[in-house]
Amino acid sequence: MLAAVEAILSSTGSLPPEVQTAIETLLNIVEILTQENKSLRSEVERLGKLLEERKRAKTTTGDGAKTNDHSSEGRRARRTPKQRPAIDRRSFKALTIHEEVECPVDPSTLPPDAVRLGDEFVNVQDVVIRPHNIQFLRHVYYSAKEKEFFRGPLPQGYDVGDFGADLRSLILSLKYCGNMSEPKIREFLENFDVEVSAGSVSNILTKTADQFEQEFDDLVLAGLNSTAYQQTDDTSARVAGEFWHTHVLCNPYYAAYFTLPTRDRFAVLAVLQNTQELHYLLNKTTRDLLRNDFIVPEKWQRRLEELGDVQLDQPSMDQLLGDWFKTSNRQLRVSIAHAAAIVYYRQQSAVPVVQTLVCDDAPQFKLLTENLALCWIHEGRHYERLTPVVRRHAEMLESFVERFWDYYSSLQDYRAGPNDERAAELRREFDELMSTRTGYKALDDRIATTAGNKADLLTVLSIPTVPLHNNASELLARVSARRRDVSLHSKSVRGARSMDIFTSIVQTCKKLGVSAYEYLRDRLHGQNEFPSLAEMIAEVSQAKELAIC
Question: What's this model's pTM, rounded to 2 decimal places?
Fold first, then answer.
């Protein structure tokens, strides 16, 4: 029907302006009604699936709705140089030879004139998995005078429970490198005659994390120091049957995970400071922030001014706001707490203050740092989600999206060779691109929204080292999502904390090109032959900085 209408319009030639406007309005109404219909159908499908799952007494972690593939990878790939095919590293990596076996030729099979010319070397990789149980004979003495036993000490790495450091490292690696569930880890070990209970596997995966708490804290601090920008994202999590959120903080040298009950601004501030309890600062800067950005009534600004300059911990802040507001004015009390927490973060010196945060356009990331760098891939997905049914609207969308990704490609080129003249030119090109008006209301509204984010989308023009997209943190968040698919949830807060610590260590090892198994084994044996991850992060980031200079 729409095709027939458009055919009639194209055959009638030019139309009076008021008729043209009326037709465009009606076509936009068609788009709106079509999208509403699709949304309602999707909701019906989601509720049907949810009802079916409940009938089967299954637990779901998502909303069950069917979603379309809105990836823009295909469009962007056409604008980036083709990468060379992946090289098989096995052909070039030097292998450590553990055993040499000679392979002679049976003399009876050789002709009389055969002469030995030399030897060929064929390297075959293999692995040996077998139990290695050790019985330690501890000398025991008893002093009747002191009424005390004296026992010979066990070697380091074997003095914690009934399982050695190698086995504990393997269990941790199977969980956090191989993404295996605890029952499957136990089943794997039982196939090699390792006697380990389900409780022992669980204890190794949780209690061992205590030994790496300081490693985690040092890793986060080194990561925050390594670049002026940080990338962040979050994904849903389940802890003790409740919905939580796993936050990711990263850059090219490290990855850190924080599973918290919320995903609001307080949670993001806790992540940036690697703390479980926020602090608050009430002063002139706080009042200015409340006046200009949170629009707090003058009455409460005067109340804050009467307090003077004061720093509060979490209980004190809760007490102050409770006395002022009791249980009412929730939005106002949250605004005051947000502003005070932000100001404290900006002036504290316990951790480096992040200058630029690469993220999506969620409200919890705003006002925290000096600069925001919005993800262009996130922005592009909004256009990919538009599904016009009117052909002319589809053509308008296709044309604009092509120009959008062409501009993105220009920003990529700029990062490789930044200069002030090109930056000014790209700002003008952005204004020109985002001033496009098509008559397709959904597209025009989306373009206007993108134009409103100009400063945050063009952060790269003033800070060229900042990435244009947030794929790095999205991929790290996907690690937690895939683990959730396997294990569904953590049974306790302690288990979630252990998962954060080991996932951070394993993913940081991956970024640094270090074997996570060997690193964990080194630490559990107490050998400390590897430098700490914090030291490696500092070394690699400094080397990169010197190379750029």
Answer: 0.83
